[in-house]
C-alpha cells in the first residue's frame, strides 16, 4: 500500500466521442496512478474519470489530462445538458490515506499553477482550496458557463482567475481545481419527460435554495426522462437514502415518481450500508454485521501479512508436496476457475455502466453462466484428486479380487470424465471471455487476455490427464468416444 493515497476525479466536457476520452485517459497513465472508473454520458456530453494514486504522480496525471483535453475539445462547438466552463471542467483532489484535506489544497494550488504555465488555461480554485468564500461553491464560479465567463473575465474583477491572465483559452476555456471530501454523484430519473418537474424537485432538494445540507442539484432531460442530478458533498451528514426519500416525496407533488437512479463514478461502502439499514429496517444494525467487514476485522492482520498470497499459498504448497494429489488435473481445474473469475469481474465492472448499457443482456447472461462454471470448476479441484485416489484404491483392491479389471476400469472412467468435464467448461469460459472483449471496458483487456490464457492452460492440462487415463482403459468404445470429444476441444 502506498504511503500516500489520493483520489482525483477530473470531469471533461466530452461524453460522445470515445476515441477522445480514450486519448485523455491514456495521457493520464503515470506510474503510481491507477484508473478506478470512467463514465461517459452523451446527453450531458461529459465524462468523469476516477483515478487514485500517490501524492506526486497523481498531480502530474491530472495536469497531463487537462493538456490533452485542451488539444481535443473545442467549447465553441460543444453542446450538452451539463453546465461547463472548460474542456477539463473541474479537477478535484480527495484525501484517502496518509494525506489531509490541507495537503490536497496544496496539491490543487500546484496543479493550478502548472495548468496555466504549461497550457495557458486560466484556473479557479474551489471548495477547500478556494481563496475567497464566494468561490467555495463550484456553481458560483461556473455561472454563465464558458460563454458568460469569456464575456466578463477581462472586465469583471469577480471573474479574475486565481492563476493566469484574465482571458479564457480560446477553445479550452477555464478549469476549476480544488480539494474536497468524498462526493457522491447521484442521479434520479423520474417517470416523465417533463424536465421542469425535475428542476422544481432539484430546487426543493438542494441546499442553496432551502433544501438539504450538503446537497447540490439541478434538473436535466437525459435519455428521454427528467433527471434530478445531484452531488452529495457529505454523505455521512446527509445520507443518500434521505435524499432519495425527499426526491420521491417532492416528485409525488407533481404526480410522478422515481423510476431508477444511478451512481456516476464510485460510492463508499459505508453509504450503501447506511441505505441498507434505512430501507431494510434492520434492528441494532452496525457495520460489523456485514460479513466482509467482520472478516477484515478478524483476519486483517493475517491478510496484511500475507496479502492475497495468504489465500492461494496453501493450495500451491499442496501442489509442491511430494504426494500424487493434488496434481495436474486439480491445477487445471483451478486455472479454469480463475479464468472464469477474471471474466466475471470484467463483465461485472462493465454491466450497469452507461457506456455499455446496450450490452446489458449479454453481460448479465455472461455473468450468470460464468458464475455457474466457476463453481463447477472449483468443485473439480477436489473431484480430480478424489478420482485419482479412487483409481489407486481400485488397483489395490484388484490384487485380491476376481473382478479386478472391472474395478480399475470403472475408476479410470471416472478419473477420465472429471478432467474431460474441466476441459469442456474451460473451453466455454474461453469462448465467453472472447465474446466479452468488444462489449466491456477496453482498459480491462489485459484481464480478459489473462482469463483466456488461463482457460487455454486448463484445457491443455485437463486433456493431458484425459489421455493418460485412456491409455490404461480397455473399453475401446469408451476410449474412442472420449477421444472424439477431447479432439474437439484441443487448442
Per-chain topology:
Elements (H helix, E strand, L loop, with lengths): L4 E4 L2 E2 L5 H10 L5 E9 L4 E8 L1 H18 L15 E10 L3 H19 L3 E5 L10 H5 L2 H8 L22 E5 L4 E7 L4 H11 L9 E8 L2 E8 L7 H13 L5 E7 L4 H12 L10 H16 L2 H12 L7 H23 L9 H39 L5 H33 L8 H26 L5 H12 L4
Parallel strand pairs: 5-7, 6-7
Antiparallel strand pairs: 1-4, 1-5, 2-4, 2-5, 3-4, 8-10, 8-11, 9-10
Helix pairs in contact: 1-2, 2-3, 6-7, 11-12, 11-13, 11-14, 12-13, 13-14, 13-15, 14-15
Number of domains: 3
Regions with little confidence, pLDDT below 50 for 5+ residues: none
| Global outline | elongated
* Structural class by secondary-structure content: alpha+beta
Order of helices and strands: EEHEEHEHEHHEEHEEHEHHHHHHHH
What is the strand tally? 11
By CATH reckoning, the class of the largest domain would read Mainly Alpha
> Which fold does the CATH topology of the largest domain refer to?
Four Helix Bundle (Hemerythrin (Met), subunit A)
What is the overall number of helices?
15
**How far apart lie the N and C ends?**
39 Å
Strand content: 5-15%
> CATH homologous superfamily of the largest domain?
Formiminotetrahydrofolate cyclodeaminase monomer, up-and-down helical bundle
Helical content class:
40-55%
Amino acid at each position: 500500500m502506498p504511503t500516500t493515497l489520493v483520489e482525483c476525479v477530473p470531469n471533461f466536457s466530452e461524453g460522445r466521442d470515445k476515441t477522445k476520452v480514450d486519448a485523455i485517459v491514456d495521457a493520464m497513465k503515470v506510474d503510481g496512478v491507477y484508473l478506478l472508473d470512467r463514465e461517459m454520458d452523451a446527453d450531458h456530453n461529459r465524462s468523469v474519470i476516477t483515478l487514485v494514486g500517490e501524492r506526486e504522480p497523481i498531480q502530474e496525471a491530472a495536469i497531463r489530462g487537462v493538456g490533452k483535453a485542451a488539444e481535443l475539445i473545442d467549447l465553441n462547438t460543444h453542446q450538452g445538458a451539463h453546465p461547463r466552463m472548460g474542456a477539463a471542467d473541474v479537477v478535484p483532489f480527495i484525501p484517502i490515506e496518509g494525506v489531509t484535506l490541507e495537503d490536497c489544497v496544496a496539491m490543487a494550488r500546484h496543479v493550478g499553477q502548472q495548468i496555466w504555465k504549461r497550457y495557458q488555461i486560466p484556473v479557479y480554485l474551489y471548495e477547500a482550496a478556494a481563496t475567497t468564500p464566494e468561490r467555495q461553491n463550484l456553481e458560483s464560479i461556473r455561472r454563465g458557463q464558458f460563454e458568460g465567463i469569456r464575456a466578463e473575465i477581462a472586465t469583471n474583477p469577480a471573474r479574475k482567475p486565481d492563476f493566469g491572465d484574465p482571458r479564457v483559452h480560446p477553445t479550452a476555456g477555464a478549469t476549476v481545481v480544488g480539494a474536497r471530501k468524498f462526493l457522491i454523484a447521484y442521479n434520479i430519473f423520474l417517470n416523465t419527460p417533463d424536465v421542469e418537474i425535475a428542476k422544481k424537485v432539484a430546487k426543493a432538494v438542494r441546499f442553496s435554495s432551502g433544501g438539504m445540507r450538503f446537497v447540490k442539484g439541478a434538473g436535466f432531460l437525459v435519455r428521454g426522462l427528467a433527471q434530478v442530478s445531484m452531488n452529495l458533498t457529505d454523505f455521512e451528514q446527509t445520507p443518500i437514502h434521505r435524499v432519495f426519500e425527499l426526491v420521491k416525496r417532492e416528485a409525488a407533488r407533481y404526480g410522478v415518481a422515481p423510476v431508477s437512479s444511478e451512481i456516476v463514478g464510485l460510492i463508499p461502502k459505508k453509504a450503501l450500508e447506511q441505505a441498507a439499514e434505512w430501507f431494510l429496517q434492520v434492528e441494532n444494525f452496525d457495520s460489523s454485521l456485514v460479513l466482509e467487514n467482520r472478516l477484515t476485522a478478524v483476519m486483517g492482520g493475517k491478510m496484511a501479512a500475507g496479502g492475497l498470497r495468504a489465500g492461494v499459498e496453501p493450495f500451491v504448497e499442496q501442489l509442491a508436496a511430494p504426494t500424487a494429489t493434488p496434481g495436474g488435473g486439480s491445477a487445471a481445474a483451478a486455472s479454469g476457475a480463475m479464468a472464469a473469475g477474471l471474466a466475471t469481474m470484467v463483465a461485472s465492472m462493465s454491466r450497469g455502466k452507461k457506456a455499455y448499457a446496450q450490452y446489458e443482456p449479454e453481460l448479465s447472461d455472461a455473468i450468470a453462466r460464468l458464475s455457474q462454471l466457476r463453481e463447477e470448476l472449483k468443485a473439480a479441484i477436489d473431484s480430480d484428486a478424489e478420482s485419482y485416489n479412487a483409481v489407486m484404491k481400485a488397483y489395490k483392491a484388484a490384487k485380491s479380487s476376481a473382478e479386478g479389471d472391472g474395478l480399475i476400469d470403472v475408476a479410470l472412467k471416472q478419473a477420465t470424465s472429471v478432467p474431460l468435464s474441466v476441459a469442456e467448461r474451460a473451453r466455454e469460459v474461453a469462448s465467453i471471455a472472447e465474446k466479452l472483449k468488444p462489449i466491456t471496458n477496453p482498459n480491462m483487456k489485459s484481464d480478459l487476455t489473462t482469463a483466456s490464457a488461463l482457460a487455454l492452460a486448463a484445457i491443455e492440462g485437463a486433456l493431458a490427464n484425459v489421455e493418460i487415463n485412456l491409455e490404461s482403459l480397455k473399453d475401446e468404445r469408451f476410449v474412442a468416444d472420449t477421444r472424439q470429444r477431447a479432439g474437439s476441444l484441443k487448442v
